[in-house]
Amino acid sequence: MLAPLRVRNFRNLWIGQNISLAGDQFKFVALAWLVLSLTGRSGALGTVLMLQAIPRSILMLLGGVVSDRLRPRTVMLASDILRAAVVGVFALLTATGRITMTAVYGLALLFGIVHAFFFPAASAIMPELVDPVMLRQANALNQVTSQIILFAAPGLAGWLVAGVGTAGGFAVDASSFLISALFLTFIVTAPRPRAAAAQSPWRDFAEGVGVLRRDRLLTALIVMASVFFFGYAGATYVGLPVLAKGPLAAGPQGMGMLFSAYGLGALAGGIVGGAISVRRRGPLSLALIAAMGVVFGSIALVRTVWQAAALLLLSGAVFSWLGITYVTLIQQRADRAYVGRVMGMLMFGVYGLYPISYGLAGWISEFVGVRALFVGGGAMIAASALAGFSLRELRELD
To answer: Rounded CA gap, 326 and 344, in Å?
Structure first.
């Protein structure tokens, strides 16, 4: 699984992106705690995340087209620099005591715009950096190291925010984007092949849609991802902070612990996914998705941080294995000239419903109760498995 690190381009990407991911955890804890401290309302946190997700969702498809037209490295570099600027303003306003919810809403919206182009480019660049036979190991290594960060960084972020305030968390994230941009400048790749030269972006996008229309399995995976993440996103990013601050009375340290437990489980799942090649990936993955829905929904029953952490540990392990399996499948299955657009449409399916999920989660947790949010989220995850079982190509996938 460590073999991809021998490839210089991949090694530079891996170092930069993991530093940036660590910074993201500091920003998330800082932002969630800032909003809850300013307003005391979970609905406000859902609104902030929704505003951040709306432009990201709308522009994700354009990001896939741009990634196929330009070098993905260039798109990622521009996104890193602009995100550093936005988060830097967060840090400055918070440190000087001039932060307001109006500013939070506006900066969240701006961050979502520049963030939208990053995801398709980051996924599309992977087949350019390593040989196809090494792609699964590269994805697994990314998953494992990212989960180590997701295990360790939220806890550290919670202590930092509790000790020095939210401005410190924003400053760490802004710095991480600049470091990531530096490592991207060390990557050298050949120009990407294009599906067609000198044609409109709309025609490029239409050709990407045509790829999905001809491949039922790729289409099914995007539909499943949409249903899965609709239930997962709101319950995780709105529900867990509210659960930690409210019913569990755990403080920012407890919130960091919950996300760290999820990251630890995902680390274990990533190691298994990278080290062990399994048969019958289709039916096994569908069974694991259904099981994750049950486990995730059971968070509604917890009474202590440790109980919630145990369930998140299991959920993270399943989530990580599924991510490695399906992302590698899509990257290998899609033609290289179209991989940016295919990944853009996958990301749109994943993130396109985030604004609704965030907003709905905030209001459900505020007016119905945060525990009901996890019941609904688990049901949606299980529903995505049912959708997958309806497709013969996925049931028979080896």
So the answer is: 15
Measure the CA–CA gap between 212 and 290, rounded to whole angstroms. 25
> What CA–CA distance (Å, rounded) separates 309 from 255?
10
Rg of the chain on CA atoms, in Å: 20
Tens-digit pLDDT profile for residues 174-223: 999 999 999 999 988 766 555 445 566 677 767 767 777 777 777 777 78
Spatial contact of 95 and 155, defined as CB atoms under 8 Å apart: no
Q: Are 108 and 53 in contact (CB under 8 A)?
A: no
Contacts of 18 (CB under 8 A, 6+ apart): 145, 146, 149
* Residues 66 and 262: beta-carbon distance below 8 Å: no
Instruction: Give per-residue pLDDT as tens, 8-31.
Output: 999 999 999 999 999 988 888 889
Domains of the chain: 3-186+201-395 (1.20.1250.20)
Length of the chain (residues): 398
In whole angstroms, how far apart are CA 395 and each of 78, 189, 247, 273, 390?
Answer: 41, 37, 40, 19, 8
CA distance linking residue 199 with residue 180, whole number of Å? 32
Q: Which amino acid is at 304?
A: T
* Distance (Å, whole) CA 297 – CA 373: 8
Whether the full predicted model's pTM is greater than 0.70, yes or no, is no
How far apart CA 386 and CA 286 sit, in angstroms, is 8
Those residues with Cβ within 8 angstroms of residue 96's Cβ, 6 or more apart along the chain or in another chain: none
* Cα–Cα dist 213/29, whole Å: 40
4, 138 contact by CB (below 8 A): yes
Please answer whether residues 173 and 262 qualify as being in contact, where contact means their C-beta atoms are separated by less than 8 angstroms. Answer: no
Tokens of 60: 């994700």
Q: With the CA atoms of 24, 239, 48 and 72 taken in that order, what torsion angle do they form, in degrees rounded to the nearest 10? A: 40
